[in-house]
Amino acid sequence: MNTHYLFLIMAILIPMISFSQEKNIRLPEPDRTGGIPLMKAMQERSSTRTFSTDPIELQQLSNLCWSAWGINRSEAGKRTVPSSHNFQEMDLYVVLPEAVYVYDAINNQLVFYAEGDLRHYCGTQDFVAKAPVNFMYVANLQKRGLKLPEEINDGSLLSSWANAGFMAQNVYLSCASQGLGTVIRAMIDRDRFHLELKLSPMQRVILGQTIGFQGK
Ligand SMILES: Cc1cc2nc3c(=O)[nH]c(=O)nc-3n(C[C@H](O)[C@H](O)[C@H](O)COP(=O)(O)O)c2cc1C
Which residues of the chain have pLDDT under 70? Predict the structure, then answer.
């Protein structure tokens, strides 16, 4: 390739890459030793559907991401939740009022994914678009070894539903510990979310979970 073209392409690409990196959110270290006793967290666990619009703290968000899908054994790359055959096929989409991010557990950051307020695609209930945080549990079946969308069926998704359940329960307990409200949700227009968030044909939306301070 002509070196002039190469420089031109680099001059365009490099600022684009650093611009998108600037939009990432670096999370504070999760607080791995704090929180209320486990038995008390289980006692407090409950679903709420009334949320304040107040944002939660970044530290709380970090704790929640780590609870849902963080790495707790870095030498083995293993997580706070189990996954069948350790396929780790889940992606955690973090939908905030200003943008959508994907949780990057290795680098403890939220990687920018899409601009704008897309909360209304996260679920069919009214509170979903008003609460400050929605976690969307998305399976990438390619990570389970499938190659084509036609190979995806209810059987191949069974484990992903179980995985999402583990993630959600950790988030329930973390919310109970941090004084936050939450509810796990299956009522999602999955095709719409898939389309609007431009997910790949090998991804499937499993469950959503709304999080925020309890409203009145
Ligand atoms: C798989 C699953 C799907 C659920 N889907 C929804 C939902 O779409 N919307 C909702 O408001 N609650 C949903 N829930 C929450 C349940 O309604 C709630 O857990 C139940 O009423 C018991 O209340 P508790 O969580 O406070 O004990 C779901 C729970 C589970 C386990």
Answer: 1-20
Q: Alpha-carbon distance 133 to 156, whole Å?
A: 29
Question: What is the reported pTM?
Answer: 0.92
In terms of CATH architecture, what is 27-212? Answer: 3-Layer(aba) Sandwich (3.40)
- Distance from Cα 139 to the centre of ligand 1, integer Å: 20
Q: How far is the CA of 169 from the centre of ligand 1 (A)?
A: 11
For 26, the token pair is: 């670096």
Identify the residue whose tokens are 């999402």. 164
Q: Give how far Cα 86 sits from Cα of 64, 76, 159, 195, 214, Å.
A: 21, 11, 11, 28, 35
What stretch of H or E contains 194? helix 190-196
Residue 92, Ramachandran bin (φ over 0: left; ψ between -120 and 50: alpha; else beta): beta
CA separation for the pair 6, 29 (Å, rounded): 39
Residue 146, pLDDT score: 95
Pocket of ligand 1 (CB under 6 A): 46-47, 49, 125, 183-187
